[in-house]
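Quick question, first post here. What does this chain look like in 3D?
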Amino acid sequence: MKKICLTFFIIISSLVCRSQLPYHLYQHTFPDVNAQDAKVLEMLSQVDENQIISDVEHLSSYINRRADAVHIYNVKDWLASEYQKMNIDSLYFHNFDPIPFWDTVPRPFNTAPNVLALKIGKKYPNEFVVCGAHYDSYVVTEGDFNPDTLVSPGTDDNATGVAGILTTARILSNYEFERSIIFASWNAEEFGLCGSSEYAKYCRNDSLDIVAYFNLDMTGYVAPGNDICIHLLYTDCDSLLGDFTKQVGNTYLPDVVINRAWLLAGDTDYSSFNRNGYQAISPSENVYYLSPYIHTVNDIIGLSVNNWEQSVTFTKLNLACVAHAAGLLYDSVEEMEPSDDEIVYFEVFDTFGNLVHKEKNIWKNVDEILVNNLESGIYIVRFFTKNGNIHTKKFFLNY
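> Answer (accepted):
Ran it through. C-alpha cells below.
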C-alpha cells in the first residue's frame, strides 16, 4: 500500500477524484446473501492458515520484491509455478511500461509483468469477477542506492494479500461458476499502482465486462489492545458492491466488525478499476492503526504480521465474495457437443473475454471455423439452442 504524507495526499486526492469515472461501463447488481450456503461453507473450511503462513514466508524470503530490482522476476516465476499447480484454464502475463509516481525512481526501468490466472465461467464466460493483490514491495530510502541490494521483506505489505489471493485461487479453481474469475498478482503498485492501472485501462479500452474487483492489501497486523476488524475501502458510486461485501461478511463472519472507512493517506489497486469504470473494493486492516512497519526493513513476521487469524479472516471474506459474485454452480456442468441439441447461434471468446467470432450457420463445423480463423490458444464457445438453452465448450488450439 502506498503511504505518503497527509498534506500531499489531500492535494493529490482532489485530482484523483476528478479522474474517476462518474458511471460504470456495465451495470451489475449482486445477489442477496442473507443465509450461509453449504457449498461456500465447504470452501471456507478449506482455508488453511499454515498454507497462508508458508506463502508469506516464501514471499518474504527474497532480498526484496521491488519492481525495479532483479528479484522481481524470480517472484513472478514462483507465482506462475503456483498457479500452474491449480485447476485453472489459462495462465497469462500482462506486460506494461511502468510510469513511476516517485521522482526518485529511475525512468524508465524494466519490470516483471502482472500474473493472471483464469477460471472460465460456464454460463457467462465473457463476464469477469477479478480479485487481486500486488506482489511488489518497497522500502523508503534516501540518497543513492542499489535497488538490487535493498532489504525490503514486504511481509504485511503485501505478502499477506498475495497469500490470500493464492489461497482463494487454490480452492475456487476446483469448482464451477457462471462467470469467469481472474486471480491477479499486480506488479509496481508501490510506484503508483502501475500494473493494475495499465491492466484496468486495457480492460476498459477492450470493453471487458468486469462485474466486480476485490482487492487484498495488508491483512496481518492488529495493533496491541485492538480486536480483528475489517475496514472496507470503496467510493460512493460503488456502494452496491460495498453493501454486498458487508452482507457477505456479516453472513459468514458474524463475529467480525465490518465497517466502511477511508485511508488517511495513500491508495491501493482497487482505485485503478474504479477510475476505469468498474465496481471495486478493498478490505483493509484498521485504517487508524495500520502497521507502523510497512516500507521498512521491519515489515516482517512477528512485528508487522502479528495476527494470522486476521489474515485467514480476510481470505475467507474474499473467497466468499468472489464465489457469490461469480455465481456458484451447484450441479456438475458437462460441456456439450453441437450434436446434443439444435444450435441456432454461437459466440467465440478468447481468454481475455473478447468476442472473436459469431456464427448463425449451424451446418458448419465449429472446429474448422476455429482452426481456420484463430491463433493458437484457449477459446470458449457459447452455444444458444433452439429451446433457449445456453451451453459452453472450451477449445484448445495448438498449431
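The mean pLDDT is 87.
The two ends are 43 Å apart (CA to CA).
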